[in-house]
Amino acid sequence: MAAPTLDTADALATAPPGYLDATRDDASLRTFLHGLPGVDQVGVEARVATLGTRSIKTTAKAWAIDTAIGLIDLTTLEGADTPG
Is 7 exposed, middle or buried, given 0-12, 13-18 or 19+ CB atoms closer than 10 A? Predict the structure, then answer.
């Protein structure tokens, strides 16, 4: 089962208008990136600390297991991969 891909036309069609100008060349991208606000390091560390103490709910576990199973390539499990 192949993963869905997003081609360039789809990406351009769904990109917010301000981002199209930012990605037209290297200089525009650098200007855009330097204009972004900085990261609140203390806030990030506090958020990470709280996430580490949270329990994973049963529904989230079931979703994760279902997703992992859906990603398994059954031909690999059978040993029927295409050589190469």
Answer: exposed
The residue extents of the domains of the chain are: 8-71
Provide the residue-wise pLDDT of the chain in tens; the chain has 84 residues.
Answer: 445 555 666 766 777 777 777 778 888 888 888 888 888 889 888 988 887 787 878 888 889 888 888 877 766 666 666 676
Does pTM surpass 0.85? no
